[in-house]
Design a protein that fits this description.
alpha/beta; globular; 8 helices; two-stranded parallel sheet; seven-stranded mixed β-sheet; single chain
Length: 216
């Protein structure tokens, strides 16, 4: 299994190097896609467009924008790199459940497809979204939950539940870390903080943190 969990996409040279190091074939022989479902802007999401350009700059032969809310999720089988864009994690999870994409993502990950999760896209790759409502309350965001979503069980490729944009939240609220620690105590688990420009890489059962102060 090969996962790259990021805060704000392919936003640093360190993440670019990590992608190239994980790929087992020359990039020119590989195809990629970006799943834009989580974003309210869909294919017009700036992060999706930026990362589409970056994947092409890295030499991948193609990078298609896909929305599994309307496109057949089975199309994901065609790609060697699958990028799950950010947005509303609850909406992405709902559509993955409705479109029977949960098992498909797990199967493709088991087959060695590189999966890149960005913010909400990284959150849904963990085992649950049960902490996200409380996290949003701490941050001061509006509730993103959906009545149609009857459970928070997520894809389950990893137990590493992430807190993206950690540096932004600390800058906006000096008490954020203390509140996050209290949430960890109440939930009985640790949440992994990911700053913009950084990434958590999970490969063959080993997790490593890629840190970069250079956001390019």
């Amino acid at each position: 299994m090969k996962l790259i969990l990021t805060s704000d996409g392919i936003s640093s040279s360190a993440i670019e190097r990590q992608i190239l190091s994980i790929l087992e074939s020359p990039p020119s022989k590989l195809k990629s896609c970006i799943v834009t479902t989580a974003s309210s802007k869909k294919h017009q999401s700036q992060t999706a467009l930026n990362d589409q350009a970056r994947l092409l700059q890295l030499g991948l032969s193609s990078c298609k924008l896909v929305d599994i809310e309307f496109d057949d999720p089975q199309i994901l089988r065609e790609y060697d790199v699958i990028h799950l864009n950010g947005g509303n994690p609850f909406y992405l999870l709902l559509q993955m459940k409705r479109r029977n994409a949960m098992g498909l993502i797990r199967q493709l990950a088991d087959q060695g497809t590189l999966i890149i999760g960005v913010s909400a896209g990284a959150m849904v790759l963990a085992d649950t979204l049960e902490h996200v409502n409380e996290l949003n309350r701490i941050i001061g965001y509006e509730n993103m939950d959906l009545e149609e979503l009857t459970d928070y069980d997520a894809v389950g490729l990893t137990h590493c539940a992430v807190v993206p944009h950690y540096n932004r939240f600390i800058a906006d609220n000096p008490d954020f870390e203390q509140s996050l620690q209290q949430l960890e105590l109440s939930r009985g688990r640790t949440y992994l903080r990911i700053e913009d420009g950084d990434a958590l890489v999970i490969q063959d059962g080993t997790a490593s943190y890629i840190r970069s102060t250079e956001v390019s």
